[in-house]
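Standup notes, protein team

Yesterday: finished cleaning the Pyrolobus fumarii set.
Today: YkgJ family cysteine cluster protein structure.
Blockers: none.

Input for YkgJ family cysteine cluster protein:
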Amino acid sequence: MAPGVRFLHSAARFTCLRCMYCCFFSREEEAPVVFSWEARRLEELLEEHGVPIENVELKPLEVYRDDKDRCVVLLYRWVIRGFCPFYDVASRGCRIHPEKPSACRMYPLLLEVPSGRLSVSGACKWIEENMWVTKRGDLLGKIFPSEIEIAKKVFADYVAAVQLLREEGFRKVNGIEGCREILDFEEFVASAGDSRGEEKEGG
């Protein structure tokens, strides 16, 4: 590789081109994956912004169940049909930019769980114009400095959540069918904390 090309690659840094492709969804599997606490905040934001929700669905994606058929939802698929309801077509910007979920903030990086494997989205216009990035995993930290830090935190939060669920006797299942009780992860954590507090008081 010529020295000039090497310098160009090492100095490159991701810049959003406001191309809109990351905010438009035609297939469910393209839609963002969000933590349960992010899903609840999205519902609040939809209401606060008066955004129609008929084309939006939060579908349980990663569910854990114990031997009492209590289920905990850790991840949801934020199913969006067409443009994201928070996308402003006129300004080509996000109406909830400071509060958008981690999957959006780390984009165009894509995090695979539970493996922790990182990849880049081919739907991103910047990636399309800089395809060499897909072959230079060693430069991801320089090209996507803020995005990769978000991805690291997401993975750490995911691993910690799964570990806690396993310690409490939960195992991963395919869905919510057969669940006697369904809790979001943060609800489960709160209830587990309350139970421990009651045990200490009783003891």
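Follow-up from PR in the comments: Residues 145-167 form the longest helix (23 residues).
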